[in-house]
Amino acid sequence: MKVAEQYTDAELIAAIGDPRDLNKAILSLYQQYSETTGAAIIHYGGSRQDAEDVFQETVVAFIEIAKKGKFRMEASIKTFLASIAKNIWLNELKRRERAGYREKQFEYGRDQNEIDVSHHISDLEKKRQLRELVYKLGEPCQKILMLFYYENLSMKEIVDHLPYENEQVVRNKKYKCLQQLTGLIKDNPLIAMQIKEIAK
User: Fold this and answer.
1) pTM
2) CATH class of residue range 126-200
3) Residue 23, burial from CB neighbour count under 10 angstroms (0-12, 13-18, 19+)
4) DSSP H or E segment with residue 200
5) Is 175:198 a contact under the CB 8 Å cutoff?
6) Gap between the Cα atoms of 86 and 163, Å rounded
7) Domain 1-121 adopts which CATH fold?
8) Which of 41, 44, 48, 124 is least surrounded by CB atoms within 10 angstroms?
9) Residue 50: exposed, middle, or buried by beta-carbon count in 10 A (0-12, 13-18, 19+)?
């Protein structure tokens, strides 16, 4: 695996703002912070796949915030990423609960500020580039992914819209569609991070 450059927080923010250095900055974020952030998600009831997905979304949200000049270095990047990840995981638990899941409650840490990044994630889901990639998968995958991610329907609701036998069949089909989508963009890490929930 390629070793990322070591950046200070200030250097990392500068690299994110420079298109020539963006991929290096992304690699650095993954190598410096993915393990600790993932361990926290697993500690609070998530799976290893959950941890990977949450960190992926965390990096995307952080890059959006940094590019807009909204990260003012009032906390370290490590602390800021932890707060973003916590909010993303909380939102995911709430979504699962609405869909009929019963997951452990994620407890808030007393010493961290809560940061609302839900609108950043919503914006990412509507990226034109991601929509165009979905269209390349064929009509069955288009319908499932659009209903799930863009219309926020549960598996049960999708069964009512599409000719599948039950929720498990839809879940399996969704997984296969996401694997195909991942295959289309695996060579481009920046596009890859725009996928909201991989193989869940």
Assistant:
1) 0.48
2) mainly alpha
3) middle
4) none
5) no
6) 36
7) Rna Polymerase Sigma Factor; Chain: A (1.10.1740)
8) 48
9) buried
